[in-house]
Write a structure and sequence with these properties.
The complex is a heterodimer. By secondary structure, chain A is α/β, with parallel strands linked by helices. Helix content of chain A is about 55%, strand content about 10%. In chain A, the strands form 2 sheets. A 4-stranded parallel β-sheet of chain A has the order 2-1-3-4, with helices on both faces. Chain A has a 4-stranded parallel β-sheet with strand order 6-5-7-8, sandwiched between helices. In chain A, helix 14 links the parallel strand 5 and strand 6. About 0% of the residues of chain A have low confidence. Chain B is an alpha/beta fold. Chain B has 2 domains: about 110 residues, Nucleotidyltransferase, domain 5 (2-Layer Sandwich); about 140 residues, Nucleotidyltransferase, domain 5. The longest helix of chain B is centred in the C-terminal third of the chain and has 23 residues. The model of chain B has no long low-confidence stretch (mean pLDDT about 90). Classes of the chains: A alpha/beta, B alpha/beta. Chains A and B meet through helix 19 of A and helix 2 and strand 8 of B.
Chain lengths: ~425, ~260
């Protein structure tokens, strides 16, 4: 039995978190980050090593907190706890080839297959008892409407409290106050659970790292405006995980610094490793299981993703003198919060700044909040006179994947781009 | 100069040979299990037919589901581009193409110079495709070719609620058992296909003239249902199943001239 098979066996047949070995974790992460064609270098290594250490601490029973994708994990770091985002588990499981089993686990328990497979995957992992119990859970209502339901269910499974921040619509004064109060209340709850007061110096440190990360991401996205591209977007799409896991930590800063340095160095020396024909903007997430469409698009058709919507920097900086309000402002200024206009404006901005030739929206099955906007996105993109394609599929569940169908769509989209 | 276009679909494979971009020869066969064998058989048919030999062909473009697997030709181009080009070759005014093939259906917006500028393909299921009609024909113990004329005999159709090819089959069996005439059932099937395609047409943007291509265009019931649902005239070329191959042959001719 190879290492990968052994790891799968442990994960699925003997799901005891204590038995999740170093090898299993390393193999899982390696599979997730492959193919690491461009960043098989320092930044890639730094990211995978950091993720490994993080996972290792978590499985060894570190004081962890289950978080959602946009939980302000800076608070978790300020309490010297370990945030463990649940949604990326689906991506990890898909790339490792075990997502089907996790999803089946939830299907056995009557969970609707219409529900987002990212959520179903972590529900499956929790049902199997794959994950060590956290101290508590902390989640936000954006970007996914299903978070309240799935996190409540996980809270029930692990018998731990859930602190939920309901992110309101709009960014007016009342909305900021409404979110800020919830953040503050969550902090009080965490203080009573952990039995320690939040230390201002640690919060300042965490905010400092987070702000630095924001600046680094902005810098990196600016650098990627350059032509020709020096990195594949299918790899930078993984950076969403860096935010979910490391926002507010020194490790997060180091990872983004590493990526930035690498991009800068490549631009300086005229890196030719990315063969680019057309420049693509990728909207929403990507399929994570093997044999997916990303290499077809980027390597075969040389339509390189030069910007991803999910890596849009949030230009709100955290302020320790007004911590709860600044966190609230940051939550509200994400493109997924509030009116769809925010998302459309951002798409327009990227098309203009990155010299985009075509836009792809991957409509992940079950993701109502993203797919519901496709018509408006299509019209926005059409306003710029460039082609748009919506690819329907699932990021986590490989069971409905048909390569031939995707190939025809991507190739036809490429043919339209090519003739322009 | 001879150029060839080969459209390797899931059900049938067509070849069109052009001589100086004008019509010359054409062949159609069942695809079978191998795209490569299907393409080779067409070349054998061409050789047997006499007049034009494989070696005379300057450039070949393949398209359709088996375009890459066939391993023949100088280049493969998607059926979206080829149907746009083929329909445009028949009528330069065409702005929207509806292609209902064996396993999928597509709506293509065509630019004034015969290029695909936008498209929508059906979901990954057989609803509203040629395969769907085959299943229904078999259930009603008819040939696919008989469906069109029978549909026209009904003044209105029975409502078919299932879009899934498999469920529609059992629904048709139930409707027959309830005593509904098969003409009305077939008309109902045509209406359900038109309703599904209509949504796709409006997503791309309905811009007349609209041309229906692919084998299903020979089904006059579907043509009528589409005409009524969309409220516009539906152009049907003389040999709708050859439009993809025709487009591929024209693209080959264009490329051969450029090179």
């Amino acid at each position: 039995m190879g290492l990968k098979e052994k790891a799968k066996d442990i994960l699925l047949n003997r799901p005891d978190p204590k038995k999740i070995s170093r090898g299993a974790l390393v193999t899982m992460l390696q599979t997730f980050l492959q193919p690491a064609r461009c960043f098989g270098t320092r930044s890639e290594k730094r990211f995978s090593l950091a993720a490994y250490r993080h996972g290792s601490k978590f499985f060894k029973g570190g004081r962890s907190v289950f978080t959602s994708l946009f939980t302000p994990v800076e608070i978790i770091y300020a309490f010297e706890l370990l945030p463990f985002p649940l949604e990326p588990l689906g991506a990890l499981a898909a790339s490792f080839g075990i997502s089907t089993q996790l999803l089946q686990e939830t299907e056995k328990r009557w969970l609707s297959s219409d529900f987002c497979s990212f959520h179903r995957a972590f529900l499956g992992a929790c049902t199997l008892g794959l994950l060590p119990r956290p101290l508590f859970l902390m989640a936000t209502s954006h970007a996914c409407d299903g978070t309240m339901k799935s996190f409540s269910h996980v809270a029930h499974l692990v018998s731990k409290p859930l602190f939920f921040i309901d992110v309101p619509y709009g960014d007016q004064r009342e909305a900021v106050e409404y979110a800020a109060v919830q953040v503050q209340e969550s902090v009080s709850e965490i203080e009573s659970i952990t039995g320690r007061k939040l230390r201002e110096d640690l919060l300042a440190k965490s905010f400092g790292y987070s702000n630095k990360m924001t600046a680094l991401l902005s810098k990196m996205q600016d650098a990627r405006k350059a032509s020709p591209p020096v990195v594949y977007g299918s790899e930078t799409l993984n950076l969403l995980m860096v935010w979910a896991m490391f926002a507010g930590s020194r490790v997060g800063v180091r990872i983004l610094e590493s990526y930035n340095n690498e991009i800068e160095a490549r631009l300086k020396r005229g890196f030719q490793g990315v063969a680019a024909g057309k420049r693509v903007l990728w909207l929403h997430l990507r399929p994570y299981f093997s044999g997916s469409i990303m290499s077809m698009l980027e390597e075969e058709f040389r339509a390189v993703i030069v910007a991803e919507e999910v890596n849009t920097p949030v230009e709100e900086y955290l302020d320790v003198s007004n911590p709860w309000e600044s966190i609230a402002r940051k939550l509200l200024s994400r493109i997924w919060s509030g009116s769809i206009e925010n998302r459309l404006k951002n798409i327009g901005r990227i098309i203009e700044s990155h010299g985009i030739d075509g836009v792809v929206h991957f409509s992940h099955w079950g993701c109502r909040q993203s797919n519901g906007a496709v018509r408006m996105i299509r019209d926005t993109v059409a306003g710029y006179g460039i082609p748009f394609i919506e690819l329907d599929g699932d990021c986590v569940d490989p069971r409905n994947y048909s390569e031939g169908q995707y190939r025809t769509r991507i190739e036809a989209f490429f043919e339209i781009m090519e003739r322009r | 100069m001879y150029t060839a276009g080969i459209d390797i679909g899931s059900v049938s494979t067509e070849m069109v040979i052009l001589e100086n971009a004008g019509p010359c020869r054409r062949f159609i066969i069942q695809t079978g299990i191998s795209s490569r064998t299907a393409a080779e058989r067409l070349f054998s048919l061409l050789d047997e037919d006499g007049g034009v030999e494989r070696s005379d062909i300057t450039r070949t473009v393949t398209t359709g589901y088996g375009r890459n697997a066939a391993g023949v030709g100088d280049r493969s181009v998607t059926e979206l581009s080829c149907h746009a080009r083929g329909a445009w070759a028949v009528d330069h005014a065409v702005r929207t193409v509806i292609d209902i093939g064996g396993q999928d259906s597509k709506v293509i917006s065509v630019s004034p110079d015969g290029r695909s500028r936008d498209f929508i393909m059906n979901d990954k299921c057989a609803a509203g495709t040629g395969r769907f009609l085959e299943i229904i024909a078999k259930t009603l113990e008819l040939e696919v070719a008989e469906l069109g004329a029978l549909a026209l005999q009904a003044d209105r159709g029975v409502k078919i609620s299932s879009m899934c090819a498999v469920f529609a089959e059992s629904e048709v069996v139930s409707l027959r058992a309830e005593g509904h005439p098969r003409e009305k059932i077939i008309r109902g099937i045509a209406d359900s296909i038109a309703s599904r395609i209509s949504g796709m047409v409006h997503r791309v943007g309905l811009e007349p003239p609209v041309m229906l291509t692919g084998g299903v265009a020979k089904n006059s019931g579907v043509v009528l249902a589409l005409r009524e649902t969309l409220g516009v005239d539906i152009l049907v070329p003389p040999d709708p199943e050859f439009i993809g191959a025709l487009g591929a042959a024209h693209i080959a001719a264009e490329e051969a001239l450029k090179s």
